[in-house]
């Protein structure tokens, strides 16, 4: 019994993301999350799927404390998401919005990428290093002086990812990353995400992305986790998918 408890404690400490009993209702009383439990190991890539209104985006917004005030607990790399830890939490969790225009606001690409490290209080050489390495990681190192609004959608999505990579996060939380991309840009995005070492929780309706990138799938519906398992097994369960508004790729 002692060995089991020790192993469980080690797992909790090692978890990149740990969500326990998370409940959250929006003003007016609508229950968006109704007791969610979810654990991601370091480096684990997990799909979060379900119909519109299932609570996927609400869950992502809890990972870095944009939404708070519900019941339950969220921990990132063992650190609880609380007001006094939000600065550290937001460096640990890179949240990438569905629309890159919600994330890019500076005159140039490199200024957008440098924004996070600058506001962490880092020295200029470190900010420059992080910005260059983040742009290189998304294969956009030649675009630093470009204006973000003049880039293609796929390029803007890459820059959005670079803005959070510059913070050197442990976790990436991505909301519909392939939405609106043409097939070529979508394939390039999958290759990019596959190469990144961070743990990832990817909210998506793109079941081809799920199949090609994410070995584990969590189905969320009406604020509850209704399935959690190997992607290969979940995608074979046609009845399960249909029950929750999903289709096999």
State the oligomer. single chain
* Overall average residue pLDDT: 91
Number of helices: 10
DSSP, total strands: 10
Low-confidence stretches: 1-12
User: N-to-C terminal Cα separation, in Å?
Assistant: 43 Å
Spatial extent as radius of gyration: 18 Å
Summarize the biggest pleated sheet: 6 strands, mixed
What fraction of the residues are assigned to beta strands by DSSP? 15-25%
Major beta sheet, strand line-up: 6-7-8-3-9-10
Order of helices and strands: HEEEHEEHEHHHEHEHEEHH
Globally, the shape reads: globular
> Level of helix content?
25-40%
Kindly name the structural category.
alpha/beta
What does it look like?
There is one protein chain. The protein has 249 residues and is an alpha/beta fold. Helix content is 39%, strand content 24%. The protein contains ten helices and ten strands. It has helices spanning 2-14, 56-63, 86-92, 109-119, 124-137, 153-165, 183-195, 207-213, 231-236, 238-243, and strands at residues 17-25, 31-40, 45-49, 71-76, 79-80, 93-96, 171-175, 199-203, 216-221, 224-230. A six-stranded mixed beta sheet has the order 6-7-8-3-9-10, with helices on both faces. A four-stranded antiparallel beta sheet has the order 2-1-4-5, covered by helices on one side. α4 (109-119) runs parallel beside α6 (153-165). The longest helix has 14 residues, at 124-137. The termini are far apart. The model is unreliable at 1-12 (pLDDT under 50).
């Amino acid at each position: 019994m002692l060995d089991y408890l020790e192993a469980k404690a080690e797992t909790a400490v090692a978890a990149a993301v740990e969500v326990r009993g998370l409940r959250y209702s929006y003003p007016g009383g609508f229950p968006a999350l109704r007791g969610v439990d979810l654990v991601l190991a370091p480096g684990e890539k997990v799909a979060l799927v379900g119909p519109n209104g299932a609570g996927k985006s609400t869950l992502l917004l809890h990972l870095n404390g944009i939404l708070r005030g519900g019941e339950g607990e969220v921990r990132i790399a063992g650190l609880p998401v609380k007001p006094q830890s939000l600065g550290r939490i937001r460096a640990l969790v890179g949240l990438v919005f569905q629309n890159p225009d919600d994330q890019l606001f500076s005159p140039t690409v490199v200024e957008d990428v440098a924004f996070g490290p600058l506001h962490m209080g880092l020295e200029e050489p470190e900010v420059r290093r992080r910005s260059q390495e983040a742009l290189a990681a998304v294969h956009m190192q030649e675009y630093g002086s470009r204006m973000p609004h003049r880039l293609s959608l796929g390029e803007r999505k890459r820059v959005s990812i670079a803005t959070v990579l510059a913070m050197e996060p442990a976790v990436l939380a991505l909301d519909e990353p392939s939405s609106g991309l043409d097939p070529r840009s979508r394939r390039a995005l999958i290759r990019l995400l596959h190469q990144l070492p961070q743990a990832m929780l990817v909210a998506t309706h793109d079941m081809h992305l799920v199949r090609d990138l994410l070995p584990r799938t969590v189905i969320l519906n009406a604020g509850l986790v209704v399935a959690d398992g190997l992607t290969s097994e979940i995608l074979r369960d046609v009845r399960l998918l249909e029950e929750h508004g999903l289709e096999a790729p």
